[in-house]
Amino acid sequence: MKPSLQIVVRLGDDLNWWLAPTPDEPDPPRAAHGILDPRQVRDLREQLAAYRAHGLDPDCVDEAFHFYAIRAEVAEGMLQLESSRDGGELFALPAIDEDGDGPYFDFLDALSAARIRLLNAAHHRCTVEEMQEELDALDRDRYFNADTIHAFEQINEILQWSPAEWDQP
What is the pLDDT of residue 36? Predict the structure, then answer.
């Protein structure tokens, strides 16, 4: 799906930014994942640097997101953003197709594999399947509680994941 040149975002109660619904797209699939603010984008880029040595392509971040800069403040807690790739303070919207697939999910898969390689380099063996089982269980709990996970939290769950048995004494 080609990114919109301009979007409107709102600051949620959770202090994360989310796409504001529009009359022609009241509930787009990409809206469910929120939009990373400039601070989160910087933090993500810093964290991902350690994963390059474990096979994460640095370009996959640029492919996984559409980048936007502030164009105007619409109202308190609402901003109009315009498509931009010119450095500075950029927001990052996950690149998700209309069918709910896309480069963002390819990025999550690549990040999961790199996380497992990083953990296996320092500890005993674990697999992407183990990680996915545990993260899927978290998603099921969210579904039953009607909670929505923001993209930044979703990415950090992968970056902070370790096998459950490592937490046991």
Answer: 96
Cα(48)–Cα(70) distance, rounded to whole angstroms?
A: 25
Please give the torsion angle defined by the CA atoms of residues 129, 115, 55 and 29, in that order, rounded to the nearest 10 degrees: 70
Q: What CA–CA distance (Å, rounded) separates 82 from 22?
A: 15
Instruction: For residue 19, give the amino acid letter.
Output: L
The answer on pLDDT for 148 being more than 60 is yes
Q: What are the two backbone dihedrals, phi and then psi, of residue 34, each rounded to the nearest 5 degrees?
A: 70, -170
CA distance 97 to 161: 27
Torsion-angle region of 95 (φ positive above 0: left; ψ -120 to 50: alpha; else: beta): beta
Is the separation of the CB atoms in 131 and 116 below 8 Å? yes
Higher pLDDT, 124 or 145: 124
User: Comparing C-alpha atoms, which of 4, 165, 167 is closest to residue 93?
Assistant: 4
